């Protein structure tokens, strides 16, 4: 169904942004990726005092086309497709709606009124890997990744190896963002392989994996959201993508006529990526070292393994 979140005051009439829409492949209630998109939409509504709409279960070209048609009739001129699959969908239909700007994530936007927002995940993975390399006792660290192409996975491996050259990284792929059952099975493999720090790099299954990590008395690195609330002793830190804040940035740029088409990248320097709360299991000395490394990266773009 189409859900309208009506503004409390007058409809905002100035500027370029009139109404905003959100398409999510599954639900806004997943407490991770989908929820962050929904929060971003609410922030836009609050800032610009406009009507906003969202639709869940938008997981095929056909349903996306129908939703965009509905949004267009309601005067929506900024649509967020909350996932990388929407880049392809929007490339196919955006020419039919020249007055709408289409936003997707981690894809390849090809038309004048399409934009893809790409998180530079390598550095966040690197810093998460440093934490894992520091805290492993077995010198075996595990990754449960969604896909091979994720830059944060390569970054995590390099971060582990930078911090601990004796550590061995075991990696398993779910090949899906949401398959919690398969991810749980891969977690069982990591337990057998004696991994004692696990990075579940998939927003649809990271929470149940962390619950299994806790059952075995192991450590985890959170993904996308700050997941310290799942257990401060178990979750050493989290590699956070502040999707809701990125929504605000994009809306402001669009409203001011400054949003570029094509593929845009964002990182720590844009305040849309950060590390989460630190576990009390981490030593103050290491936290100081890690914070200094993050600060240097934000200022210079150089990771610890790179020359100044």
Poorly predicted residue ranges: 6-15
Reported for the largest beta sheet, the result is:
7 strands, mixed
- Mean pLDDT over the residues: 93
Gross geometry = globular
- Helical/strand content category: alpha/beta
Report the end-to-end length measured between terminal Cα atoms: 53 Å
Neighbour order of strands in the largest sheet? 1-3-2-4-5-6-12
Order of helices and strands: EEHEHEHEEHEHEHEHEEHEEH
What is the alpha-carbon Rg in Å?
Answer: 20 Å
Give the helix tally.
9
In helices, the fraction of residues equals 25-40%
Describe this protein with a few key phrases.
308 residues, alpha/beta, seven-stranded mixed sheet, six-stranded mixed sheet, globular
Concise structural overview:
The protein is an alpha/beta fold. The protein contains nine helices and 13 strands.
